[in-house]
Design goal:
Structural class: alpha+beta
Distance between the termini: 93 Å
CATH topology of one domain: Double Stranded RNA Binding Domain
Number of helices: 4
CATH architecture of one domain: 2-Layer Sandwich
Mean pLDDT: 88
Strand order of the largest sheet: 3-4-5
Oligomer: single chain
Number of strands: 5
Strand content: 15-25%
Largest sheet: 3 strands, antiparallel
Length: 144
């Protein structure tokens, strides 16, 4: 992971590391004195509208898919404080950002409307006739 290697999202999209804002802060939670003295929590920010890594259509798709995670400027923020290692937390945060963007870029397939086959329609109607006849036979016939 060199400083100038891009963050690969998928085979086509790679985010230049210069576009990522990385900040190390102190993590909260358990860990005793170690937590209070080391800045191992990593926060990565990425501005979607300003990126050169995505086309306009892809930017729109990401903005729509991640609308709840974007701030007013269109910046996405990913945080990792899972481990006590700053390097590992940075790798985790980058992997999470890449996974988020990868999922947001997936174009859902358009559903093709299909008609039931003639055989399946006939099967359904035959079953309905059989069920109706069964219920009709169960009725109490009063011939008196």
């Amino acid at each position: 992971m060199a400083a100038d290697d891009p963050l690969n999202v998928n085979a086509r999209v790679a985010i230049p590391r210069a576009e990522l804002g990385v900040r190390a802060t102190r993590a909260g939670g358990p860990g005793g004195q170690h937590v209070n003295t080391s800045s191992t929590r990593i926060e990565i920010t990425w501005n979607v509208p300003a990126t050169a890594a995505l086309t306009d259509d892809e930017k729109a798709r990401v903005r729509a898919a991640l609308a709840s995670r974007l701030d007013a400027d269109g910046t996405i923020r990913v945080v990792a404080s899972d481990t006590r290692s700053q390097r590992q937390n940075r790798e985790l945060a980058e992997a999470r950002l890449a996974a988020l963007i990868r999922r947001a870029l997936v174009v859902p397939r358009v559903r093709k409307k299909t008609k039931p086959t003639r055989a399946s329609v006939e099967r359904r109607l035959t079953q309905k006739r059989i069920a109706g006849a069964r219920k009709r036979d169960r009725r109490h016939h009063s011939d008196c």
